[in-house]
């Protein structure tokens, strides 16, 4: 599953090379920062790429180089899709001002195949993806050299998009079986393993504290300094009679724990259907089945905005109730704790007033300032009537899932293992400044079962200056509140679901007939 994302971008500068890991520092802002060369090795065991954390709740981006000579491109990191696709220099969104006005964005950077000596056409018009709000991205399949994290994957197949609804490309890190191509091909994770660049088709994701500058992705390895306690191994769900196609694991309950020690536990058993959880970095928000999320809404006094068609919450939770948290339970011994402030996105205009509805509290009891709540109901997808593809309505069971996006993943350390069909999961050690790298291997039948991280949270949050992308496309630098205000400006005119999906990064892709 894939989400359109808000515009906060990564720029890479040279990093240190140690323990077979290539590390990069990052700066916030639009692309254009020089990407320096990194010493090459005949073989590396792991590759590390740092990511930027969008303070206002958007996606995680990485800069790559495509072609010979390399053209610098910005791509959304997405564990919920499987194709890499780049924006063509002739993409409609990049050349049509009316489309730019419609989607509220311009193209960050583009790729020109005629300027690459290593470009090859694989299949003309072979790529197409349709988003929840009806927008479509389409183009050709090509192959070209692809550099990320200081190493180059030779002749990587990817999509060259000429019809677009977003201003950056996407780097999909899922199973190749979920590609949009009629004939499946080795994607970037497959090729990194096939070309001997990593020892296992796996990577570790550390999104880090929402308030800090950066997170990281580690290809082919695990960093034990980035999580707390034992790394628990979870098997992926395999569809009956099918193949592994997504990062979906068992999920048993969610518990709201209050400052005074009381708890509200909501098990998945209250539903009349299973609700396994998809772990998807391409999704800004998280989604629970309506039967599970409504008790949480009642407990926290949320407000449903029919204009935005989203659940909002009092912004006071950003600074009060410091011990209030939600605990997501996967096994009897594995629970990931998410503090309430990680679930509060202060991205609405300061003077924004939720539209009236019979379900809303009377005006005198409404909060003075509302924020977007980081957990939404999957009922959104049926209420809007947008779960349709090729004019065929989906059954109600389509929304019986749990999708844990960035509002959850920032509190977790996640190892995605495509070789052994497993997920490694532990509580994140936020703001870690050290590393202890364990390379992954394709040998054996499992991820390492005895890895243990640090004993407890090691550091505390220290505010640092950040930069954001201005609504007019200009790069600005300032405090975290400046970043939030910039995102707020872009929401001033939001009065439809389609617009808010694009701004808040909450649209997910639906497969079309291209398989």
Automatic annotation (TrEMBL):
One of its GO terms (biological process) is proteolysis. Residues 60-426 form the Peptidase A1 domain. PROSITE patterns: ASP_PROTEASE, PEPTIDASE_A1. GO terms for molecular function: aspartic-type endopeptidase activity. Residues 1-18 form the signal peptide. Pfam families: Asp. It comes from the Eukaryota. Residues 455-469, 479-488 have a biased composition (Low complexity). The active site is at residues 78, 280. Keywords: Aspartyl protease, Hydrolase, Protease, Signal. Residues 455-488 are annotated as: Disordered. Belongs to the peptidase A1 family. This is Acid protease. It comes from Parathielavia appendiculata.
């Amino acid at each position: 599953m894939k989400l359109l994302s808000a515009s906060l971008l990564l720029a890479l500068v040279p990093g240190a090379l140690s323990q077979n890991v290539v590390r990069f520092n990052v700066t916030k802002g639009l692309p254009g920062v020089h990407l320096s060369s990194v010493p090459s090795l005949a073989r590396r065991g792991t590759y590390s790429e740092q990511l930027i954390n969008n303070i206002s709740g958007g996606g995680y981006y990485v800069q790559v180089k495509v072609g010979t000579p390399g053209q610098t491109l910005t791509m959304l990191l997405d564990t919920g899709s499987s194709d890499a696709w780049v924006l063509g220099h002739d993409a409609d969104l990049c050349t049509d001002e009316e489309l730019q006005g419609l989607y509220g964005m311009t193209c960050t950077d583009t790729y020109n195949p005629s300027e690459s000596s290593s470009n090859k056409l694989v299949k003309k018009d072979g790529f197409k993806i349709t988003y929840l709000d009806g927008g479509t991205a389409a183009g050709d399949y090509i192959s070209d050299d692809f550099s990320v994290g200081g190493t180059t994957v030779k002749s990587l197949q990817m999509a060259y998009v000429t019809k677009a609804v977003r201003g950056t490309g996407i780097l999909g890190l899922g199973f190749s079986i979920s590609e949009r191509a009629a004939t499946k091909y080795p994607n970037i994770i497959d090729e990194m393993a096939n070309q001997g660049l990593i020892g296992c088709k796996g990577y570790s994701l550390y999104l880090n504290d929402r308030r800090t500058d950066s997170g990281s992705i580690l290809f082919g390895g695990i960093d034990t300094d980035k999580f707390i306690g034992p790394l628990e191994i979870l098997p992926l769900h395999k569809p009956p009679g099918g193949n592994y196609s997504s990062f979906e694991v068992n999920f048993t309950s969610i518990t709201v724990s209050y400052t005074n020690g009381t708890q509200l536990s909501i098990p998945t058993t209250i539903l009349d259907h299973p609700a396994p959880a998809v772990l998807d970095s391409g999704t800004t928000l998280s989604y629970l089945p309506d039967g599970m999320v409504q008790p949480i809404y009642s407990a926290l006094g949320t407000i449903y905005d029919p204009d935005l068609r989203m659940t909002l919450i009092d912004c006071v939770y950003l600074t009060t109730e410091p011990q209030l948290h939600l605990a997501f339970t996967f096994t009897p011994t594995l629970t990931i704790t998410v503090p309430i402030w990680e679930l509060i996105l202060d991205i609405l205009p300061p003077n924004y007033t939720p539209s009236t509805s019979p379900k809303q509290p009377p005006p005198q009891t409404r909060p003075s300032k509302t924020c977007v709540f980081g957990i939404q109901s999957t009922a959104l997808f049926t209420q809007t009537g947008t779960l349709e593809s090729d004019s065929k309505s989906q059954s109600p069971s389509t929304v019986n899932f749990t999708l844990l996006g960035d509002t959850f993943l920032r509190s977790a350390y996640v190892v995605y293992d495509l070789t052994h069909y497993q997920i490694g999961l532990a509580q994140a050690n936020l703001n870690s400044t050290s590393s202890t790298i364990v390379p992954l291997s394709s040998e054996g039948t499992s991820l390492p079962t005895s890895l243990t991280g640090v004993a407890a949270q090691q550091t505390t949050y220290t505010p640092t200056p950040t930069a954001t992308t201005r609504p007019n496309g200009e790069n600005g630098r300032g405090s975290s509140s400046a970043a939030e205000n910039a995102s707020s400006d872009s929401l001033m005119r939001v009065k439809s679901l389609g617009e808010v999906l694009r701004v808040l990064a909450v649209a997910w892709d639906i497969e079309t007939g291209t398989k």
